[in-house]
Amino acid sequence: MTSHNPDDARADLLCYLVVAQLVAKARTGEWLRTDHLVESGRIWCNANGARFDWHERARLGQIAADLAPQVMETFGLTREQSLLPLFVDGWMLDYESPVVCGIHAVCADRLVR
Known about the structure:
Layout: H1 6-28, H2 34-48, H3 54-75, H4 80-83, E1 87-88, E2 92-93, H5 98-112
Antiparallel strand pairs: 1-2
């Protein structure tokens, strides 16, 4: 669930985009293109009531692209099966999952630098 704090919402969106990158890599062997990341960000914002312009979504998409390989290695998320437990109700991240919480912490930390 997204917080009303814009910084928390940025970390939530960044976490989602990093996981989207991991899913793409596991399924296709390729990272998402920038336009797909921006579109994923738009969809996430609409679903969560967050308001970021496309410039901010693009910036977060670039950060997600930079973070995804590190997150993949750190958490051992190289196969689609390892990613399934990160979700509840379709594409909603399970924030009770220790792995999702760990990815979110990496994202929040990156945003304060």
